[in-house]
Amino acid sequence: MALADQIATRQKLDRNWVRRAIGQARYQAQVVKLMTPLPVGTPKNWRAYRERFIEPRRISQGIAFWRAQRETLARAEQAFGVPAWLIVSILGVETLYGQHTGNFRALDALATLAFDFPMAHPRAAERSQYFRTELEQLLALKHMGLDPLRLKGSFAGALGLPQFMPSSWQRFAVDFDGDGRIDLFRSTADVIGSVANYFKIFNWQAGLPTHFAVQFDPSRLDLEALLAPDILPTFSVANFIARGAIPEAAGQAYPGALALVELQNGEETPSYVAGTDNFYAITRYNWSSYYAMAVIELGREIEAAIRP
Known about the structure:
Helix content is 52%, strand content 9%. The protein is of the alpha+beta class. It has three domains: 1-35 and 102-154, Bacterial muramidase (Helicase, Ruva Protein, domain 3, Orthogonal Bundle), CATH 1.10.8.350; 45-100 and 159-204 and 284-308, Lysozyme; 211-275, no CATH class.
């Protein structure tokens, strides 16, 4: 109730309404279970992850979605500089074009994570505060004509076809169909425009590659130094090569910064690519290099069928 009063003040909402809303939230044990991290030492597996998303159903439905929304996708690409393949792929990976938007009441999911975040998580206190902020932003959606108590989404509180968190709905969502309201559940145009706007704000650069193939020179390979900045592009091509990572020819001519992206394959040898600023931009949607690579590869498969 103390948080309810703070939210009411900050968001200029009726204090009694906020108190009643938070008072209706119900603890969801399944949410805690799904948010609890895997045991330490569980190996990641890019090949297994890839198979979940680069598969016939997602590709065929992505092709159908692109064809049905061709004009809106072209308008978004022109307005925001974000390619159609990226928008289409994001929606395929996130919700299979609206088929799986989540059945958790967002109020319950976010309150559970705000007040009962699993302590087994290494960043439990930080994450709990994050979800308190998202709970606040969910209630603030009332100002946009939405009923926060009725919205359903993922176990983490993500909403609609693009699975925007409430704060992302507030910051990045746009009215792209011109009807005077933003609807990320039923307006495909709003969904397309909002995803494009998200990437524009996170500095997607039109025409820039996402990554390059890379090989190693064992005689000078300094893998520890190359992986130290994680996926944030910080190396010039010359510095990248000096540390033993040799990009393909197009990458060697690339004028920007690179990052070495490692994709583990369980007990087998990891895969590596040289990521650009656009690869990093995709990870701002979901902070995972595995996610970014799945989005890229699904998008390219769909685009190849649309633009052979």
